[in-house]
Amino acid sequence: SVAGWLFGQIASVAGNLAGLLVNGAFVLLIFGYMLADSDNLGARLRRFVPADNPLYASARASTSSVGTYMLILTAINLTIAVLDVIFLTFLGIPHALLWGLLAFVFGYVPYIGYWVSILPPLVLGFIQGGVVGALIIILGYWFINGMLSTVIAPRFFGQGLNLSPVVALVAVLFWGALLGPVGSIVGVPMTAMIKSIVFDNYSGTRWLA
């Protein structure tokens, strides 16, 4: 039947996503340790770079802003995931906890992650309730994920990382193509650090920054 085929496809996608979640969690763990070690970076730089060198100040500001950004984004993603689980459980969508976890992980991928996280619940909502069920999923995710991601998160793209939404999207696509799905997760913070430490400190590349 069509429903059986759809559930088979969803199971296949869920299996692939499980592998992606493991790899993503591993890279995020490494990235977290890098941020935690940022204080030692300043001590290492002081051995070779004078305290008044702009490179030292840029590195310190960059690691601080990226660390703050990741902590706030994690809090936003966790809030979205919890609300998604409550919303999907209320509607009776199967495996609500899994789709909440999916929303949490892909919340680190700006713009694109939203569409990836909504797809499985949307298909299940359509199977259970037809067009009306799918529409309810779209509206619920738009209110929960969309409002938090597009109203709150972009403030930290602009204020915390000093990156425009266009640059953030290009960063996701570029690092995703270079490093795979994991590159989409760490692409924006990596771009912000490169911009701050490298491009901002040289007159020849400041225009690019």
Keywords:
209 residues, mainly alpha, 85% helix
Question: Could you state the oligomeric state of the chains shown?
Answer: single chain
Biggest sheet statistics:
none
Percent of residues in helices: over 70%
Termini separation comes to 54 Å
Cα shape: elongated
Note poorly predicted spans. none
What integer is the average pLDDT? Answer: 75
User: Helix and strand string, N-terminal first?
Assistant: HHHHHHHH
Global structural class: mainly alpha
The count of strands amounts to 0
Strand content: under 5%
Radius of gyration: 20 Å
Continuous helix count: 8
Write the layout of secondary structure elements.
Layout: H1 2-36, H2 38-48, H3 54-91, H4 96-106, H5 112-158, H6 165-179, H7 181-197, H8 203-206
Helix pairs in contact: 1-5, 1-7, 2-3, 3-4, 3-5, 3-7, 4-5, 5-6, 6-7
Can you put this structure into words, describing what you see?
The protein is an all-alpha fold. It has eight helices and no strands. The longest helix has 47 residues, at 112-158. The protein is elongated.
